[in-house]
Write a structure and sequence with these properties.
Elements lengths: L13 H14 L5 E2 L11 H13 L11 H15 L8 E4 L1 H13 L5 E6 L3 H9 L3 E6 L10 H11 L5 E5 L11 H13 L3 E5 L22 E5 L12 E4 L2 H14 L5 H10 L3 H25 L2 E2 L8 E5 L7 H12 L1 E2 L1 E2 L11 E5 L4 H15 L1
Parallel strand pairs: 1-11, 3-4, 3-5, 5-6, 6-7
Antiparallel strand pairs: 2-8, 7-8, 9-10, 10-13, 12-13
The structure holds pyridoxal-5'-phosphate (PLP).
């Protein structure tokens, strides 16, 4: 019998497992509310749907250039002009199959097996799993209230001393999942400079841009042309299922990324690229959705501590509450399973985000409608009594 690769032995993405269980329960007729997965309950923007329908009527959906259509890259350059006052050459932009493919491409073009890459703990689990599957050393750097839940030069130095290896890359999300941390301009600049001075690749995950409620939203592109910026239409643009993301690359990385992307993906789906191009014009509709997340955020900030879930990190951006559940359990995985079975509310156990301390935490996504989130909290309040 053949054996499996060691690289495939990654942790499951527990949020996806919870989602699958929630879907099974929903199909069996239960009124499930999912706060487990970070996906908006709002529909795809109208303009994107219209553009996609028109393209379907036209009939032919094909491959595009490996790094995406010129129309989408130009529209994204326009986005950087209006939102950030930046002139970005569309030739530096690569369209990817969700930001998830962007991580693969970045890691493959920047690192070799055995290289060390730092990420925050707690942090988005797929970073750890993709890095591990590619044979890279994952350096999980604990982030706490002391450093406003973000990476700092000091914490990166300490992590290198502890691991005995120099870093080849640093990956930071702002706003961050699951902590909601927004890394301010000055802190981001300090990190980018620290990396530049040491020839460390700095990867900035900006997927939650557009969803900052407290603090300033800075793109790493405002600070340096050397950052590898990754973004996506999944969150602010409410287009998770269309699977479109993008990268903005230092010029010398464009051709290597293109070479790897040609063979790995051929191209991102053309229909989705057409829809995404139109979505960039959907500001007003999307800002209404952002306001509904803000209402959820304000509601949860008040209500979660009242029901016994203390909020473990700032909720400044993205759409997550990361809560300490030690008042009720030391096993957040079993707790999440029981909560789903008893009251049909799905949440993600902290172990996804933090293999060491996560048994004491849970992440609640508040990307659902106001009514759903309020109903979920009232079910939890009654259950926890
Ligand atoms: C921080 C972060 N980065 C990247 C992703 C992946 O998103 P996608 O592949 O849909 O662009 C997610 C999804 O939850 C995320 O939270």
């Amino acid at each position: 019998m053949f054996s499996l690769s060691k690289r495939s032995d990654v942790e499951p993405f527990h949020a996806m497992d919870v989602l699958a269980e929630a879907t099974r329960r929903r199909q069996a007729g239960h009124a499930v509310i999912s706060m487990a997965v970070g996906q908006p309950s709002h529909p795809t923007p109208q303009a994107a749907l219209v553009a996609a329908r028109t393209a379907l009527d036209h009939g032919r959906i094909g491959y595009t250039d490996a790094l995406g259509t010129l129309a989408l890259k130009q529209a994204l350059a326009g986005h950087y002009r209006t939102r950030h006052g930046l002139e970005i050459d569309p030739a530096r932009i690569a369209i990817t199959t969700g930001s998830s493919a962007g991580f693969n491409l970045a890691f493959l073009t920047l690192f070799d097996p055995g290289d060390s890459v730092a990420i925050a703990r707690p942090g988005y689990p797929a970073y750890r799993n993709i890095l591990a599957a590619l044979g890279l050393d994952v350096v999980e750097v604990p982030v706490t209230a002391e450093t406003h839940f973000t990476l700092t030069p000091e914490s990166l130095e300490a992590a290198q001393v502890a691991s005995g290896k120099r870093l080849k890359g640093v990956l930071l999300a702002s706003p961050a999942n699951p902590t909601g941390t927004v890394t301010g301009r000055a802190a981001l600049k300090t990190l980018a400079d620290y990396c530049a001075d040491r020839s460390i690749a700095f990867i900035s995950d900006e997927i939650y841009h557009g969803l900052t409620f407290v603090g300033e939203e800075t793109s790493a592109l405002e600070l340096t042309d050397e950052a590898i910026v990754i973004n996506s239409f999944s969150k602010y643009y409410c287009m998770t299922g269309w699977r479109i993301g993008w990268m903005v690359l230092p010029e010398r990385l464009v051709r290597p990324v293109e070479r790897v992307a040609q063979s790995l993906y051929i191209s991102a789906p053309e229909l989705s690229q057409i829809a995404a191009t139109a979505a960039l014009e959907a500001g007003v509709e999307l800002d209404t959705y952002r306001e509904s997340y803000r209402r959820n955020r304000d509601f949860l900030t008040q209500r979660l501590p009242e029901i016994g879930f203390s909020i473990a990190s700032p909720m400044d951006g993205a759409f997550y509450a990361y809560v300490d559940v030690t008042r009720f359990t030391n096993d957040s995985m079993a707790f999440a399973r029981k909560m789903l079975a008893d009251i049909n509310v799905a949440a993600t156990p902290g172990l996804d985000f933090d293999p060491i301390e996560g048994h004491r935490a849970m992440r609640l996504s508040y990307a659902g409608s106001n009514a759903e989130i309020e109903e979920a909290v009232e079910r939890m309040a009654a259950w926890l009594k």
